[in-house]
Design goal:
Oligomer: single chain
Shape: flat
Largest sheet: none
Length: about 110
């Protein structure tokens, strides 16, 4: 058997460093998604303003389904993109349930007094 210079693998990367790197990668991916959403929003605004301007300046009606259909349907897609990036908790927040429970309990308590 031939002796080679292959050294055994040494794990110098501790678990804490691994978790930090994993957290960094998750944060980086989240930022990438947020930037993607803002680009989507910017393109949505610019393109729809241009479409509406072209239609209205060429004599088309502003308040017509055909004029507003692109912003409407694209807006639905943009809403789903928003929910995909920020999640539905953006409307209620983390502590929303607890605050509501406390609010209702306080109301009930004031009725007992």
């Amino acid at each position: 058997m031939r002796n080679t210079d292959i050294q055994p693998y040494e794990d110098n990367f501790s678990r804490k460093e691994f978790l930090k790197e994993e957290a960094y990668q998750r944060a980086k991916e989240k930022v990438k998604k947020i930037v993607g959403f803002y680009w989507h929003l910017a393109v949505y605004i610019v393109i729809n303003v241009l479409i509406i301007l072209v239609i209205v300046l060429n004599g088309g009606p502003l308040w017509h389904f055909g004029t507003l259909s692109t912003p409407l349907f694209w807006g639905v897609g943009l809403l789903f993109h928003f929910l995909g990036v920020f999640g539905p908790r953006v409307f209620f927040g983390k502590d929303w349930e607890q605050r509501k429970i406390k609010e209702f309990m306080d109301k009930e308590e004031s009725m007992w007094e």
